[in-house]
Amino acid sequence: MSLLPEEKVTHWLTSRTAWRLEDGKLFLSLKFQDFSMAWGFMSRVALLAEQQDHHPEWVNVYNRVDIALVTHDAGGITEKDLALAESISGLLG
After folding, report:
1. Distance of CA 31 to the CA centre of its chain
2. Is 19 exposed, middle or buried (0-12, 13-18, 19+ CB in 10 A)?
3. Is residue 14 a contact partner of residue 8, using CB atoms and an 8 Å limit?
4. SS3 category, 31
């Protein structure tokens, strides 16, 4: 998997305002009603990640979930990251 040009990532981000670039990774921060809703969302993301064989870096604190996507083997953002980010966004409606 090869790295995406910065222009492509920047263009992708222009229509996905919930996501941002942070420390060379795609980053999403979400706040849910409570811990149970946050955990349920993480469970759905985990199933997507397994299907796509691409796993996020994430942190959960009570009702907050922070997700960072990067392809470590490639050393940056690849199509795998964009695909998983699209799937995650799809869960949010």
Report:
1. 14
2. buried
3. no
4. strand
Q: 43 is written with which tokens?
A: 């469970």
Q: For the full predicted model, state whether its pTM sits above 0.90.
A: yes
Using CA atoms, how far residue 42 sits from 7, 12, 55, in Å, is 30, 23, 12
Alpha-carbon separation of residue 78 from 59, 64, 69, 70 (angstroms)? 21, 26, 9, 7
Could you tell me if 4 and 78 are in contact, meaning their C-beta atoms sit under 8 angstroms apart?
Answer: yes
Beta strands across the sheet bearing 25-31: 20-22, 25-31, 64-69, 57-61
Query: Looking at residue 63, what DSSP letter applies?
Result: T
In the chain, the amino acid numbered 27 is F
- Reading the block at residue 55, the tokens are 């796993």
User: Tens digit of pLDDT for each residue in 65-88?
Assistant: 999 999 999 999 999 999 999 999
